[in-house]
Amino acid sequence: MRKFYAKMIFIFLAFLILKSQAFAFQIPTNDTRQTAFQLPLGPNGNYFSKEGQFSANGASGDGTYYSRWGSRASRSVWFKFKAPASDKIIVTVEGQESYIQLALVNAKDEELASTAFGYPVKSDQLLFTGLREGEEYFIVVDNPIEGKPIGQFTLKFQNYLMTTCTQPYVLALDANGKGRVKIDDLLSEDCYWPCAGVECSRELTKSNFSCNDLGENYVTIKGVGANGTTYYGTTLVKVVDNIPPTIAVRNIRANITNGEFVKVDPKNVILWRCGKIDSSPSPNPVPGAGETQFFQERPCAKDNCGIELFELSKTTFTCNDLGENEVIARVVDKSGNEATTKVIITIYDLTAPVAKAKDATVYLAANGLAKADANLMDDGSTAGCAGYNASLNKSIFDYNDLGKNEVAFIVKDDRGNLASTMVNIAVEDTLKPVIVSQPAKMYLNENGKLEVRDAKALAKLCSDAVIVVRENWMGFEPDGSREDEFFQMFSKQEGCTKDNAQISEFWTEPREFTSANLGENEVDLFVSDMSGNYTSTKAKLTILPFDTSCKKELWAVKSGDWNDPNIWSNKENGEAIGVVPCESSTVNIKGQKVNFVIEGEVAVKTVNLLEGSEPTELYIQVGSLKVKEAISEKGNVTLKQSEIGKLEVIKE
User: Fold this and answer.
1) What are phi and psi of 614, to 5 degrees?
2) pTM recorded for the entire structure
3) Backbone phi, psi, residue 40, to 5°
4) Half-sphere exposure of 564 (CA within 13 A, CB side)
5) Coil, strand, or helix at residue 330?
6) Residue-wise pLDDT tens digits, 490-541
């Protein structure tokens, strides 16, 4: 028995499901033009369907495309009517929010009008003027399948009574954005529609209007005749707003921060946030009445229907507008009513400077200096409206700066604001030394040989020629010093050997000589600077024999080796005489560096180390130096020996 009831329940549920599906896909009776629903227009050419009377569910479409539609017909129902005696008709469709497309065609299927919003709406309306009374027309309601179905919808067909009964009525809104019409405002005195007498009644479906109704509004008039018949008519109410807005502004300051312009928002100038300002509670003037709080409306721009446009006559300000600018502020409401006033906008330039620079290479000139130009190194720096000055924390360079130097590139604007970035300035020297030779003589050593290690004697030197590396002065700093004070006499002399930087080496070709070269020899003299630039000229070198005599007193007049006869003279600052110290010699070294490199041993009488303008040094590197009497060290001098060098004082 249970199985029987279960089977019956299953069959009943299946029947309900199949029945619901059949209803869901039922095709509307007015699915095509041939089966269009005939609108039964009333006595005055109006038709109001029951709410939700029609549906497009299950409807088909013939793919027709009308001019104002967004897509071809895909879910359409049709209506037909005979045109009433009217100047204008209004067709309204109301349903669920969906895509709605409407079209009006004549009996020849020619389009007269069409409309479509292009987005989901709950209602759509089609208006047309110029129908021929008594002729047949068709209305197409299409619900595109791309969107939600419209479901059940209501259709309204109204005509517009532009007759002796009614004319378009203009309603001006009040200061609160409100307006009201009465039936007598819309119908003329001699209008007896729908009938005359006290038995007839007339009423409006809409009598109150607001800012949302600005423009044309088609209003339905409902009339009931003496016989109880209901009539509908349509008239036009034009809602207007003639009240201009009020405007309130404030003077403001705007800052240029990008070096070019600033944009001002009208709402930063026009006061648009309305409200009330409350006071602190104060005693009521009436004794015993407590306290009262007063309220004051905040000044602002306002309108009875709201302001649509906030505008300034000028919103973009550039460097040409620095200072005060008189500008016109303007507000416009929905109806085009406007109000204007003047306002002052003061423009300031607060652009922060930005330093951008590129690396550079400078070359030492003949005077030994190189100058870097900050303006040529500028690579797009900015500093606001008034411009800027560019500088370097170091702009003058000398031979001490050869190579890469990291320097600060500085931008300073007219307000004293600074910005900087680091750049590399490469200092190079491409000028060759100037060389002028002079005759010189040199002595062979005791072995009859000569190796020219320093050919400076063959060069006629300028008195200010730089040969020894000076202390690193770090170049010229832009602190007000004069460039001509940096090197007082550098490169002022002519007819002598010099360089714009520092001379590093003198040498000859050939370098080695023997007794076969005694007498005058023409050699090639070379001079190079510290950048490797070099030049050469011919020079006369006289080779003299070694002097074997023993001198009682000798002075080192050059730096060099102990056994080099070209560094010793018999008097201070004298010329070399081609001898070397012997057992009876008193040796004086002042402002020179002498290296003792001898196989075996050498004896002298006395050694005096004296402080000079240049360092004084005796370095016993190889061999043994025996001093018979004493070694004297006066002042800041250096006496040193290596592990294989030996210094002895022997008193006989």
Assistant:
1) -115, 165
2) 0.54
3) -85, 85
4) 20
5) strand
6) 456 788 999 888 888 999 999 999 999 999 999 999 999 988 999 999 999 9
